[in-house]
Amino acid sequence: MKKRIRIAQIGVRHEHAEGKMATMRTMPEEFEIVGVCAESPVDRETFGKRACYEGLRWMSQEEILNYPGLDAVAVETEMTELVPTAMRCAERGIHMHMDKPGGENLEEFDKLLDLCRKNHVILQMAYMFRGNPAIQFCIEAARKGWFGQIFEVYTSMSRGRDSQPFRQWLSTYRGGGIFDFGSHLVDILISILGAPDRIVTFQQQLDADGLNDNGHAVLLYPKTIATIQTALQQADGQRSRRLFVSGTNATFELCPLEQGYVAYPKFNDTPLSARFFLKEGNESFAAGEHMLTFGPMRDRYIDQLEDFAAYLRGEKQNPYTLEHEHLVQKTVLAVSGYTEWKK
Question: Is the per-residue pLDDT at 262 higher than 90?
Answer without folding.
Answer: no
